[in-house]
Amino acid sequence: MRSLTQLVISTLICVTWSSSATAALISLDDSRFGVGSITRDTNTGLDWLDVPLSEGRRFVDVVGQFGLGGDFEGFRHASVAEWRTFIINAGIPNTDVIVTGDVTAFTNLTSLVRATGFQSVFPETFGFLNDSPYSPLRRSGYLDYFPGDVPPNYIARTVVNLNETVEFRTVGHWLVRRVPTSIPEPSVIAGLGILGLGLLVQKNLSKQ
Length: 208
Description:
The protein is an alpha+beta fold. It has one domain. The protein is built from 5 helices and 12 strands. β2 and β3 (46-49) form a beta hairpin. The chain starts with a helix and ends with a helix. The model is unreliable at 2-23 and 185-201 (pLDDT under 50). InterPro entries: Ice-binding_C. Keywords: Signal. This is PEP-CTERM protein-sorting domain-containing protein.
């Protein structure tokens, strides 16, 4: 009976953890890029490289560095859709909509992916995305602060197009890769706990 009680408690912990783990962003170290250089979105299974690490480089240059031995081996440019999901998972309500007053989610995200520039003391992050409306332009993702506004305003822009053949001093690249090692989905963890509970109950019933 004691074992059954312990497994019930463990299963409840698994279910609770699986709920709280959804859409969490985690800062991780990387052996190539350094301390805190990766932001892992556990909801999508994508690792996001700190944007300033690719700052000041042309889109076409960065694309050529994704292969074996390249500066960004294993990475690729994120799509607009992936970036929008990342923004929402960071706690920002939506893209291309001005957020005023409490901009904590913006400043928290820029502290994770790092800033490519500042307006006053407010950080901003600007980077290329993969989508192209037409050559040679590429869409971008921009955590943009509105200076002079009280209370402060931020917006996560996806409407700015940049020339892929030009380097911009304060613009990096939103680079992603799939999580390299398998991490159990929260729903799987909960399911394993429930499965274990069922097996133990069946075993106890068979003894009666």
